[in-house]
Amino acid sequence: MKPSERRKARRLAVQAIYSWQLSGNNIADVEHEFLTEQSLDGVDVAYFRELFSGVATKKTQLDDLIIPHLERPIDEVSPVEKAIVRLATYELTFRKDVPYKVAINEAIELAKSFGADESHKFVNGLLDKLVARK
Q1: Residues of the chain with pLDDT under 70
Q2: Which of 13, 41, 82, 83 has its CA 20 to 30 A from that of 93?
Q3: By its UniProt entry, which InterPro entries does this protein fall under (predicted)?
Q4: Half-sphere exposure (CA, 13 Å, Cβ side) for 110?
Q5: What's the number of CA atoms in the CB half-sphere (13 Å) around residue 41?
Q6: Which domains does the chain have, with CATH numbers?
Q7: The pLDDT of residue 59
Q8: Which residues contact 57 (CB under 8 A, 6 or more apart)?
């Protein structure tokens, strides 16, 4: 498996998490929609599935790890930033094979791609605090 396949899986997972957060649709329906309507060329589909379902099923546990490091209520965090931070927190917590620097760097790149101008700084600062606490 190439690192670029995981990078593409993360990008797709963030989009699916974002969609799920906003729509409130069933996890399986959102996953099916993404797997049938998106280009999967060069995507590690198994990793996408793990990330998406892992974040969706462990949302409360992930938020419990994130909330102590926020300076505002989690409901005030933009949906894009929330999706990225939840995904990175999942990797940092449940994927011990992913070096923490890789998880943080990937999250920063996702924030640069999908977030507002300063999102990457927010994501970086939050994840740095989360890693320091572990």
Answers
A1: 1-3, 133-134
A2: 41
A3: NusB-like_sf, NusB_fam, NusB_RsmB_TIM44
A4: 29
A5: 1
A6: 3-133 (1.10.940.10)
A7: 97
A8: 27
pTM, full prediction: 0.94
Concatenate the DSSP letters of all residues of 103-130 into one string: HHHHHHHHHHHHS-TTHHHHHHHHHHHH
Q: How far apart are CA 31 and CA 21, in angstroms?
A: 13
The per-residue pLDDT for range 22-58, each reduced to its tens digit, is: 999 999 999 999 999 998 999 999 999 999 999 999 9
Residue 50 is predicted with a pLDDT of 98
Residue reference for tokens 């990225």: 84
Q: State the DSSP code for 60.
A: H
DSSP 55: H
